[in-house]
Amino acid sequence: MHLKPNAPEQPHQHRWRARAVVQTQTLDRNDLVMDFQLLAHLLRQAARPLTRVKMINELPPFARRNPSAERIAQYIFDRLAPLLPSTVKLKKVIVWETPHAAAAYQP
Hints:
Elements: E1 2-4, E2 7-8, E3 17-23, H1 36-51, H2 69-80, E4 89-98, E5 101-105
Antiparallel strand pairs: 1-2, 3-4, 4-5
Helix pairs in contact: 1-2
């Protein structure tokens, strides 16, 4: 990650955690926005490419961009939103880099 000119961070790994926040105009027949097990499955599906590489920079969307928690949240958001049922809107994705540091993407 490059934060200052000519001062890149050394490559390092994180144990990322992600959360998706969804909303709807009308609850379903079970009085839910959507089934959370389905949401968890779709979230894992959207994030799966991130888990298949040693360094996130190996993925084309991150080849020339910082793999920040913010950028990863945007990446997951962009992949997850089209997977959701038509009655459900993805509000935001939050990505934790550590138990105490997180970033959210909410367009």
